[in-house]
Amino acid sequence: MIIYPAIDLRGGRVVRLTEGKFDQEKSYGTDPLAVAREFKAAGAEWLHVVDLDGAKDPLKRQIELVEQIARGSGLRMQTGGGIRDEAQVSTLIAAGAERVIVGSLAVKNPALVKGWLVKFGPERIILSPDVRLDADGIPRIAAVGWQESTGVALDDFLNDYVAAGLAHILCTDISRDGKLTGPNSALYAQLVKKFPTLQIQASGGVSSLEDLRVLKTTGSTGAIVGRALYEKKFTLQEALAC
User: Fold this and answer.
1) CA atoms of 143 and 77, how far apart (whole Å)
2) Active site residue 8
């Protein structure tokens, strides 16, 4: 299982939000490249970067900063945040990103995003269906910075994209994000069982090394770790070792 240390960018700073809410931000420094280099020195191979400004307003996308991190950290990077058109995908790949994360658009315009899977290849595109469980426990996808419910069931969404060649997903249980309450391991175990061809990354709630050990048993191929590292719940070296 690959550990993806996370950097969320807002106004050039490293921040974390709780449940994606911009009014619940905590800042962890003003030098994202230095943070990325620390992750590299600790043994990381990959980095997960979300451009929160770009997610909110495409005109404020922090492309130069993302490129500095991609070129200067020595880490392989997956990155996204409000991806809305093909030009943005091309720009991020040209800036050094290995994978581009596509969220809301994958639900709202599946025909377009399926075309990207063909054009860029399944190794270049990772979808991020972020979910809330409904009253019946069915994961349904949220969009627009998690503020809008689409009503789309996660299983239906994935079945459609698997048929189109999808290889990578990053799934967040929104209720766990930024809270250090533990990931929804049962959700990831179910996804791995139902969709054995997908490379599934778990996100949201990792708070301990035990959380990572449990996630590994689910068959998840990756885990995003953010706030737990910044709050020093454990070190990146410890996470990689376990």
Assistant:
1) 23
2) yes
* Structural domain span for residue 46: 2-241
The span from the CA of 140 to the CA of 149, in Å, is 8
The model's pTM is 0.92
Among candidate residues 8, 51, 173, 211, the one labeled active-site is 8
Kind plus residue range of the DSSP H or E element containing 232: none
pLDDT at 106: 95
From 51, 53, 130, 173, active-site residue: 130
> In sequence order, what are the residues at sequence separation of 6 or more whose Cβ sits closer than 8 angstroms to the Cβ of residue 205?
173, 176, 177, 179, 180, 181, 182, 183, 184, 211
DSSP, res 9: E
β-partners of residue 28 are none
* Residue 221: Cβ-neighbour burial (10 angstroms; 0-12, 13-18, 19+): middle
Identify the CATH number of the domain in which residue 223 sits: 3.20.20.70
What one-letter code names the amino acid at 105? L
- Overall domain count for the chain: 1
Q: What's the confidence (pLDDT) of residue 145?
A: 56
* Tokens representing residue 79 in the block: 């990155």
